[in-house]
């Protein structure tokens, strides 16, 4: 955890919501009636009554691809005090992960959420690990009370897009100084 305050979003950071490739978002072990759109989509995630809920046990595995390369600065995870997520592991550019192999890879960062953080406070990530992100996998390992069901009201990712150089826009440099 960096020394930077976790109470506010850095002024240059934006909500990366509009850069999510919705057609490819996945969530393993989600309840069919309480799916990932409730926690991620604009409008849904602002309604605390709409939640993402785990199904067979407390774990959730979310795959969030982006439509362009982004840098992720911080994450907001909102949830109830008892069933809200506790240990959250984040993996940058790690595709096709499942519960069977999620522990085979070291996470880019691990965040341990407190009941206070779950009220919607941003958590600053190891920024250096999230510089060229095409996809983010979020593994919610457990919850605050070690109960069978984990509930997530909101997940927001804050950062910036990575400006890519368009080769045709570059001007040819003349050799004559």
TrEMBL record:
InterPro entries: Galactose-bd-like_sf (IPR008979), PITH1-like (IPR045099), PITH_dom (IPR010400), PITH_dom_sf (IPR037047). Residues 5-177 form the PITH domain. Pfam families: PITH. PROSITE patterns: PITH. GO terms for cellular component: cytoplasm. It comes from the Eukaryota. Belongs to the PITHD1 family. This is PITH domain-containing protein. It comes from Saponaria officinalis.
